[in-house]
What does this fold into?
Amino acid sequence: MSAHVARSAKPLRLSQILFSQGFGTRRLCEGLIYNGLVRVAGELVEDPDAEFLPTGLVFEVDGKTWPFYDKALVMLHKPAGYECSQKPKHHPSVMSLLPPQLRERGVQPIGRLDEDTTGLLLLTDDGTLIHQLTSPKHHVPKIYEARCKHALTPAMVQQLLDGVELHEPEAKFSRPGEITQALAAEAVDETLLRLTLSEGKYHQVKRMVAAVGNRVEALHRPQFGALALPADLPVGEWRWVASPAEVWGQ
Ligand code: URA
It folds into this structure.
């Protein structure tokens, strides 16, 4: 199965398994088992020391099914009105859309989407994966759909492909900005721009579109790397990603 489960190939105690999956302190995990709330392969298990091979294990806690993942990787269909920060300032955090078990495991967004951006957000508790997927070295393409205020012109699209200068929004003095290019850019209709970027700079799409004299009115991310937002994942809902290979496209 996935690299995310391969590391725990030796049998583990059921209480350890629940603990590793974010079900609270060891005592709480033992309590869930003693209280008859845990099933493995459909069978009630009341011994916290019963051992199971975690690889590929599926268990139930209080009637809800959980697959075992050594490292968690999930996708969220981010709604507008949620901040990616763990300590949000003006809106609830995307973390509030996840079950407590994932928060307990310490999952964090892989990169950020603005509060008003919708679409595919990945979250994980695997620090190495966060680093790899956000590092500019790896050039992981992200696709954005930007509904623009003004009609798109072929010149605007060409400028985005050739490279535009991004000014620092916070800079006190005007100074040359960084040049950034889209990997792909196309006008889908009069005002809908589809952009592929490999970096993840602050407000990057909005600043690139502003640099060509237009303005983003709504922004959506339908794809991160090779992983597309599933059409049947409702806004505000999350789902497991079985392996990072789905993001790398391997
Ligand atoms: N670029 C932006 O401007 N905002 C986002 O949320 C993502 C990319």
About this structure: The longest strand covers residues 216-224. The pocket of uracil is lined by residues 113-114, 117, 144, 203-206, 219 (CB under 6 Å). The chain has a mean pLDDT of 93. The CA atoms of residues 55 and 187 lie 46 Å apart.
